[in-house]
Amino acid sequence: MFIAQELRKKNIAEYLLYMWQVEDTIRAFDCSLSRIRREYIDRFDYDDEQKEEEADWYGNLIRMMNQEGCRQQGHLAINKLVMQQLQELHAELMQSSDHPFYNSEYYKVLPFIVELRNRGANKEENEIETCFNSLYGVMMLRLQKKEITPNTAHAVKEISTFIGMLNDEFMKK
């Protein structure tokens, strides 16, 4: 909760990736608040009040995941809303002549987006979601200490730059 609050204020892209990781963390603990409290929250250097706040936050997220049917996969509506806002901002920026560097960066990453969408299972997802899925996937590979090919590393570097520009525009609003 504390990390999410800080990221939400400073970097919407990192916030969204963090929240996806939180969803996966909840799933890893079988959506069990008692396990999350015992095996996860208790490891942090928080005082009792902070641990209780964190547990309440996770409890609310678990409840929402149950209600929204995303215990096994998918994303919470609160995270889908952020993605929608980013997609809408992307569309605005693409239609504006006031953001030539953003447009240029988009066309630089477009071949990577097309390739990723052609390889992915969900060809209906929007381009911004494709970018986030690739960033999240590489983040997971790194956490698992798995190899990342030079081509993938290059694509992710370009996508990161593009999403960073989108993030900057979002944070200005």
Quick summary:
With 173 residues, the protein is an all-alpha fold.
Structure description:
This protein is mainly alpha-helical. About 75% of the residues lie in helices and about 0% in strands. It contains eight helices and no strands. It has helices at about 1-10, 10-30, 35-40, 50-70, 75-95, 100-120, 125-145, 150-170. α1 (about 1-10) packs antiparallel against α2 (about 10-30) and α7 (about 125-145) packs across α8 (about 150-170). The protein starts with a helix and ends with a helix.
Top keywords for this entry?
globular, about 170 residues, about 0% strand, mainly alpha
Query: What is the overall silhouette?
Result: globular
- The percent range for strand residues is under 5%
Q: Please report the distance between the alpha carbons of the first and last residues.
A: 23 Å
Poorly predicted ranges? none
Indicate the radius of gyration in whole angstroms: 17 Å
Mean of all residue-level pLDDT scores: 94
DSSP helical segment count: 8
- Derived from helix and strand composition plus strand pairing, the structural class reads mainly alpha
The main β sheet shows up as: none
Determine the fraction of residues in helical runs and give it as a percent range: over 70%
How many strand segments? 0
Helix/strand order: HHHHHHHH
- Oligomeric form: single chain
